[in-house]
């Protein structure tokens, strides 16, 4: 139940992450096409997609490292108490760090 506020914050951040850059790239493309007469849409969207996929791969790698750090065992149904405590602490501390970084940008 305590995860719900954090999930809402993550939802807003994810919504902004995937919608705002797309609209900014579209505006940049229009301006560059107006100035140069050449439409570089493929280059811009290709680079945007590359960096999205690269960041997702890095995030999954870090998640794997965290699961290894908290001694997560995928073969058991119920994890040890220390594993659950470490993962709760890690999740909450990461969300608070992201929240503080988001508010610092405002």
Count of DSSP H/I helices: 3
- Which structural category do the helix and sheet elements fall into? mainly alpha
What is the alpha-carbon Rg in Å? 19 Å
Shape: elongated
Distance between the amino and carboxyl termini: 28 Å
Report mean pLDDT, rounded to a whole number.
78
What oligomeric state is this? single chain
Q: What is the helix/strand order?
A: HHH
Strand content: under 5%
Main β-sheet: number of strands, strand sense, barrel status?
Answer: none
Helix content: over 70%
> How many β strands by DSSP?
0
Spans of at least 5 consecutive residues with low confidence? none
- Number of individual domains: 1
Summarize the structure in words.
The chain starts with a helix and ends with a helix. The longest helix has about 35 residues, at about 5-35. The mean pLDDT is about 80. It is elongated. It is built from 3 helices and no strands. It has one domain. It has about 110 residues and is an all-alpha fold. α1 (about 5-35) runs antiparallel to α2 (about 40-70). The protein has helices spanning about 5-35, 40-70, 80-105.
Offer a quick outline of the entry.
The protein is mainly alpha-helical and 106 residues long. Helix content is 82%, strand content 0%.
Keywords:
106 residues, 3 helices, elongated, single chain, mainly alpha
Write the layout of secondary structure elements.
Blueprint: H1 4-36, H2 41-69, H3 81-105
């Amino acid at each position: 139940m305590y995860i719900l506020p954090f999930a809402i914050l993550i939802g807003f951040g994810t919504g902004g992450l995937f919608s705002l850059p797309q609209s900014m790239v579209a505006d940049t493309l229009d301006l560059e096409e107006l100035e140069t007469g050449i439409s570089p849409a493929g280059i811009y969207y290709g680079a945007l997609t590359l960096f999205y996929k690269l960041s997702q791969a890095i995030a999954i790698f870090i998640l794997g490292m965290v699961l290894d750090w908290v001694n997560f065992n995928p073969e058991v149904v119920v994890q040890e108490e220390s594993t659950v405590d470490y993962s709760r602490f890690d999740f909450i501390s990461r969300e608070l760090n992201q929240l503080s970084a988001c508010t610092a940008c405002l």
